Amino acid sequence: MKDSSLAINNNNNNIKTTNSSSGNNNKLCVTVVGSSAVGKTALTVQYLTNRFIGDYYSGTDMTYPHSFSYMGGSLKTNVDILDISRPSSDVSIREEDEMISSLVDNCPEKCIAFLVVYSLTNSKSFKRAREILSKLPFNSPKYLVANQLDLQHRRQVSRLEGQTVADQFGCPFDEFSAVESLYEGQQCGVKIVFHKLIRQLISNSHVLPYPRMIRFSAFSKMIGAIVSKTRHHSNNKLQQQQQQQQNNKRKSSMSSCSNSSGNNSSGSVDSIATLTPEMSLLHIDNAHLMYGVKSKAIPIIRREMSMSNYPSSQIASI
Ligand SMILES: Nc1nc2c(ncn2[C@@H]2O[C@H](COP(=O)(O)OP(=O)(O)OP(=O)(O)O)[C@@H](O)[C@H]2O)c(=O)[nH]1
């Protein structure tokens, strides 16, 4: 039975996701996969609406365009949540395999994440989850989830079995119930899972690795320290000589990473933030530049990528 709060656009198989924050065509996707009736839709809807809705259409793949806020709400990115719905026949398992390979072929490994779901009341679905994990690309973020934790009395798969398979494929694992909105008395468990996957996608799809930010920050600290020293006038000749040497060092290191306009020669630390576009950071704000240096925000740069439409999926909005 279809819930009326899910507005489904049946005509549109061409999914165009534009990233409003960056204006490019990057597309991040979290794909929810697993056997039939394990609660893939229930978990997805629980994440998007904080509600458990009992019955859904079965047998139709759905794409839920989702806007994800991060960095304390200062940044947003668009993520498609793709819910692959499967009736239980062997034919549809073949179709699902084809769908996964087509997704994997069309989407860079680092832009697609997989939430593999089984029901802890159904050992067949656990076997299938293991099979699916074995087909997923090595570099894609993955999470194994056992659903229907509220049905403990019907448990067929132990927590240890789930954890063992997750360890085998190097992915995190947890048991949830789509019915229960709280996890360990705090946030909805499935929310944590989706957030982890999306954050991993965001981090993977950025051009620069995180360590570069640390290096750059250390560099700006060093320059800041030198500049603050040069502000102290000293009558001591030795100190003056040392200052001179330090100034020379500073100028040479700054000119080595100056931009083409060459306007860094003033020695103002301000210019560090505008030095080289290729040194763009994951994120930069005033906190990353020290000693009263005014920084300019450097926009996030993400890889250009294109991805064809998800086969047979319909767009849904909640
Ligand atoms: N008790 C309980 N029932 C659940 C839970 N999650 C889902 N269900 C029920 O299980 C049935 C199947 O849920 P769906 O979310 O449609 O499962 P699905 O994996 O999307 O199924 P397909 O669309 O056939 O692939 C529905 O009747 C849900 O109400 C859960 O955590 N606990």
TrEMBL record:
Annotated keywords: Hydrolase
SMART domains per UniProt: RAB, RAS, RHO
Gene3D superfamilies: P-loop containing nucleotide triphosphate hydrolases (3.40.50.300)
Domain of life assignment: Eukaryota
Region of interest: Disordered: 1-20, 231-269
EC number of this enzyme: 3.6.5.2
Tagged with keyword Hydrolase: yes
GO molecular function, one term: G protein activity
Biased composition (Low complexity): 8-20, 239-268
Keyword DNA damage on entry: no
Catalytic activity: GTP + H2O = GDP + phosphate + H(+)
InterPro entries to which the protein is assigned, alphabetical: P-loop_NTPase, Ras-related_GTPase, Small_GTPase
Family: Belongs to the small GTPase superfamily. Ras family.
Record's protein name: small monomeric GTPase
Species, as recorded: Daphnia galeata
Lineage: Eukaryota, Metazoa, Ecdysozoa, Arthropoda, Crustacea
